[in-house]
């Protein structure tokens, strides 16, 4: 009977050592996973900040382009105004509005 209890104690001691080894291995594994997870959180927050900064820059560029577009529309309307075109035509090209007797109406079929 004594031999059986010694054998059982030996088996229990081996099993306990294996369990302790597995617990240590799982602890190290979980610690590594926590460290990797924390590094991924840090990286993702860094990327988020970079993307938010890029978005802000793009918004500023968009606003600047909208201002420039508005200025170009104003410039286009100034260059294309009827009074300016009429002044250029009469001064530079020596053109004038035809008299009513010189106007020919064409009919569309």
Secondary structure layout plus pairing:
Blueprint: H1 2-79, H2 82-92
Write structural notes for this entry.
The protein is mainly α and 109 residues long. The chain has one domain. It has helices spanning 2-79, 82-92. The longest helix has 78 residues, at 2-79. It is rod-shaped.
List keywords for this structure.
109 residues, mainly alpha, 2 helices, rod-shaped
A few lines on this structure:
With 109 residues, the protein is mostly helical.
Alpha-beta classification: mainly alpha
In round numbers, the mean pLDDT is 89
Q: How many structural units, i.e. domains?
A: 1
- SS strand fraction: under 5%
Question: How does the major sheet shape up?
Answer: none
Number of helices: 2
Provide the gyration radius in Å. 44 Å
Q: State the helicity in percent bands.
A: over 70%
DSSP, total strands: 0
Overall shape: it is: rod-shaped
Order of helical and strand elements:
HH
* Poorly predicted segments: none
Question: What gap, in angstroms, lies between the N and C termini?
Answer: 125 Å
């Amino acid at each position: 009977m004594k031999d059986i209890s010694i054998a059982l104690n030996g088996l229990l001691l081996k099993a306990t050592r294996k369990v302790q080894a597995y617990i240590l291995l799982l602890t190290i594994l979980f610690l590594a996973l926590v460290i990797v997870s924390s590094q991924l959180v840090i990286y993702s927050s860094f990327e988020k900040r970079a993307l938010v900064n890029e978005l802000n820059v793009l918004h500023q560029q968009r606003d600047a382009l909208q201002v420039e577009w508005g200025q170009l529309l104003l410039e286009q309307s100034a260059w294309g105004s009827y009074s300016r075109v009429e002044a250029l035509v009469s001064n530079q090209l020596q053109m004038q509005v035809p008299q009513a007797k010189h106007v020919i109406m064409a009919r569309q079929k």
